[in-house]
Write a structure and sequence with these properties.
This protein has 384 residues and is α/β, with parallel strands linked by helices. The protein is built from 14 helices and 14 strands.
């Protein structure tokens, strides 16, 4: 498949694709959509930013357009985070425009009244996080007995976050006679177990090395003293165009760095698990809209946050594990665009840099640090 026009989609979906500027599919879309349209189960792995969301939304919508579904929820999409669920819903709304197919979102951290109202008013598609959905099921506020189309999005991330018990609870009440699509950045042993248990004779789609950053991202490393990190970051922001996504290790460190950047005149927001959903939405939407040039985040934003055109990712603090490096870096260089990822490392962290390079089979290009960088007198320790 070289163009979306080749697919056997209804005219409304074809029109919506054209309006959204979708002409040529990405590699994962080209290989996953045709078997999914044919009703087969699919297990797909691909790097972040390769278009996996559309790869399951199109078959889902085409299936529901056939009108064979029962009343109530016919399709369930499970997401690991609120942000990913809400962004999936945004994509769904654009692609489903004019089809009459409606969605509901069930996520924690937000009022449940509106979510339940959307379910009761006849949403055919439920986009949910495991915890909130299990809560609804426990209280018999939602029924999954009519689900025919089941999507596990970012399956590896859900397992990383400890959602396996919730997944088991949910799968028990989803009909066995269903079509299942599983999308993941990686297929580790735990995910392989999920596949064996929940997916039937799947078509396997693997696009590129899932444990390596995309080739279109320039990887740089700066060896810099802790009290000069802020000066280096400020200089990069001043010298290079575009938006910056900066990763700190902890909630406290994220807020401190965002405040310091704001005091230098850089419009900055922060996002982490300790902020309310309203605060997280405001920060993310402001970053998307250009209100903020810099978003400082913990790893809550490493996966599933789809923001077009991020020019530069900065690892202000090193990630806990090499795999998180891939997901952080995957926020730039998306959909074929080029991007830059810079990693700040102290002299004592040289072994950590080598561990990342060995684990991911990559080379971080050393970049020099200017001798006149100012010192941050308050940076007695890294932002941890």
């Amino acid at each position: 498949m070289k163009n979306f026009s080749e697919l056997s989609l209804c005219s409304r979906l074809q029109s919506n694709l054209a309006k959204q500027g979708f002409v040529q599919p990405t590699a994962v879309q080209a290989r996953a959509i045709p078997p999914a349209l044919a009703g087969q189960d699919v297990v797909a792995t691909a790097q972040t930013g390769t278009g996996k969301t559309l790869a399951f939304l199109l078959p889902l919508l085409q299936s529901l357009m056939g009108g064979s579904g029962k009343s109530g929820i016919n399709a369930l999409i499970l997401s690991p985070t609120r942000e990913l669920a809400m962004q999936t819903n945004e994509s769904f709304t654009r692609i489903a425009a004019g089809t009459g197919i409606r969605s509901a979102v069930a996520v924690g951290g937000m009022s449940e009244a509106g979510q339940l109202r959307a379910v009761r008013q006849g949403a055919q598609v439920l986009i949910a996080t495991p915890g909130r959905l299990c809560d609804f099921l426990d209280r018999r506020l939602a029924s999954l007995s009519g689900v025919q189309f089941f999507v596990l999005d970012e399956a590896d991330r859900m397992l990383d976050m400890g959602f396996l018990p919730a997944l088991r609870t949910i799968v028990k009440v989803v009909p066995a006679a269903r079509q299942t699509l599983l999308f993941s950045a990686t297929i580790e042993q735990s995910v392989a177990h999920l596949i064996k248990e929940y997916v039937r004779n799947p078509v396997r789609v693997a696009i590129g090395p899932s444990t390596k950053p995309a080739d279109q991202v320039n990887l740089h490393v700066y060896e810099v003293e802790s009290d000069r990190k802020l000066g280096l970051l400020t200089r990069l922001i001043g010298q290079e165009p575009g938006s910056f996504l900066v990763f700190a290790r902890t909630k406290h460190g994220t807020d401190r760095l965002a405040k310091k950047l704001s005091h230098t005149g850089v419009k900055t927001a922060s996002i982490h698990g300790g902020r309310t959903q309203s605060q997280r939405n405001q920060a993310l939407n402001g970053f998307k809209d250009g209100q903020y040039r810099v978003l400082v985040a913990t790893d809550v934003a490493a996966r599933g946050i789809h923001v077009d055109g991020i020019a530069h990712v900065v690892n202000y603090d090193l990630p806990h594990v090499p795999e998180d490096f891939v997901h952080r870096v995957g926020r730039t260089g998306r959909a074929g665009a080029r991007g830059t990822a810079s990693t700040f490392s102290t002299r004592n962290e040289r072994n950590e840099i080598r561990r990342i390079e060995r684990a991911l089979n990559v080379r971080l290009t050393p970049r020099s640090v200017a001798a006149d960088l100012p010192r941050d007198s308050r940076a007695s320790r890294p932002l941890e």
